[in-house]
Write a structure and sequence with these properties.
The protein is α+β, with helices and mostly antiparallel strands and 64 residues long. The protein has one domain. It contains two helices and four strands; from the N terminus they run αββββα. The protein has a four-stranded antiparallel β-sheet. A hairpin with an 8-residue loop joins strand 3 and strand 4. It starts with a helix and ends with a helix.
Length: 64
């Protein structure tokens, strides 16, 4: 699944609660099929697309 940049502007992006004030953080947005992940400081470089199962596993691994 691929999304055009203008389509991602309409998504609800969320910054990690573990992000620091220096801008070293990632953002994620839920999609119908999973999630998108991008670097807050380099939004112009696009995003990673991850399916729902992989997203769930990633979040679980990061919480442990």
């Amino acid at each position: 699944m691929s999304m055009k940049a203008d389509a991602t502007a309409e998504l609800a992006w969320h910054k990690s609660t573990f992000s620091n004030n220096a801008g070293d953080c990632v953002e994620s947005a839920a999609t119908e099929h999973g999630a998108l992940i991008r670097d807050t400081k380099a939004r112009e470089h696009g995003h990673l697309t991850i399916d729902a199962t992989s997203w769930t596993r990633l979040v679980a691994a990061l919480k442990n």
